[in-house]
Amino acid sequence: MTGFSAQWLALREPADHRARDRALQNKVCEQLANVARTEQRAVRLIDLGCGSGSNLRALATALPAQQHWTLVDYDPLLLAAARTALIAWADQVISDKTALTICKSGKTIDIEFAQVDLARDIERVLAWPADVITAAAFFDLVAETWLVRFCQALRTTLYTVLTYDGSEQWLPSHPADAAMLKTFHAHQKTDKGFGVAAGPDATSIMQRELTARGFQVTLASSPWQSDQTEAEFIHALATGSAAAVRETGLLKEQDVEQWLAARISAQHCTVGHWDILATPR
Ligand SMILES: C[S@@+](CC[C@H](N)C(=O)[O-])C[C@H]1O[C@@H](n2cnc3c(N)ncnc32)[C@H](O)[C@@H]1O
Questions:
Q1: How far apart, in whole angstroms, are the C-alpha atoms of residue 228 and residue 244?
Q2: Is residue 1's pLDDT more than 60?
Q3: What residues are paired with 170 via a beta bridge?
């Protein structure tokens, strides 16, 4: 497992939600409103690599009144954390059996939880009924070969947010920034369970593969912007980057330590991401 902790996902959730591109989100919401209107049924979304359910919390209140979500992850602890977090977030819990039904801001949301290893079983998941396949902070983990499989099997709209684009800017700057970023990129390209990870190349690979298959692809930038008002987030982000760099063994420990000490108290930090909306023509 890649070992994302529910604590880290909770810490990044406010920055994630602020960063998402609103114009692209509005487009997917319009598409789904159209489905609800013309077909008079609940809209169906599948969230790949759902973690503790942040993507649903970001999107559901802007979607039609009746929704069905399938949250997919291979980590049973994160699926359990998602159920707990969604119950806490709901205005009302209507049913809490195998599936969960909640109300939030006037929306009725049926939620199924599916423990699936997407490295192995993506084609099976993409065959489930869905109006939109969605994901947040997921696609930079996967390999190019897996992305080709994914794009081959995709039959419906894809809306994915927060795929890392490789850019970072910390203020004030530090002499080790460039070396740290280069080494972090090397770590991004290590195997996260799907083969050699595409990391920051994931978006351009998806754009190429989906366009070649006749999808209309729109990209929008969605950078994290944070400062010391979110000191715990900045601390965790810097510590996570330093840990990834340490794992590569490519930089001297003393340099990593000095960079980390400076970064924990950075005034501002920007980390670039892409959001993608891909619609079959
Ligand atoms: C960076 S986290 C993002 C979580 C969530 N989407 C969010 O925005 O907070 C990546 C997620 O992908 C999941 N994941 C990684 N590899 C997976 C695999 N092979 N199958 C299913 N889920 C996987 C992890 O468990 C984790 O929940």
A1: 22
A2: no
A3: 269
- Long-range contacts of 88-91, Cβ-Cβ distance < 8 Å, separation of 24 or more: 89/57
Q: Before 64, cis peptide (omega within 30)?
A: no
- Confirm whether pTM is higher than 0.85: yes
Is 75 close to ligand 1, i.e. is its CB under 6 Å away? Answer: yes
pLDDT band at 179 (very low <50, low <70, confident <90, very high): very high
pLDDT, position 138: 98
Superfamily of domain 6-280, CATH level 4: Vaccinia Virus protein VP39 (3.40.50.150)
Secondary structure of residue 190 in the 3-state scheme? coil
> How far does residue 169's CA lie from ligand 1's centre (Å)?
25
- The helix/strand/coil state of 198 is coil
Q: Please state the rounded mean pLDDT for residues 111-129.
A: 98
Confidence of residue 64 (pLDDT cuts 50, 70, 90): very high
Nearest Cα residue to 104 out of 122, 115, 116, 90:
90
Residue 168 CB less than 6 A away from ligand 1: no
- Please report the pLDDT score of residue 2 as a whole number: 54
Distance, CA 1 to ligand 1 centroid (Å)? Answer: 9
**Is the minimum distance from the CB of 237 to ligand 1 under 6 angstroms?**
no
Residue 3's pLDDT is 76
Whether the Cβ atoms of residue 165 and residue 221 lie closer than 8 Å to each other? yes
Decide whether any atom of ligand 1 lies within 6 Å of the 141 Cβ.
Answer: yes
Ligand 1 near 74 CB (within 6 A): yes
Cα angle 136-140-145, degrees, rounded to a multiple of 5: 120
What is residue 77's three-state secondary structure? helix
Residue among 12, 18, 50 whose CB has most ligand 1 atoms within 8 A, to mutate: 50
- Ligand 1 center to 50 CA (angstroms): 6
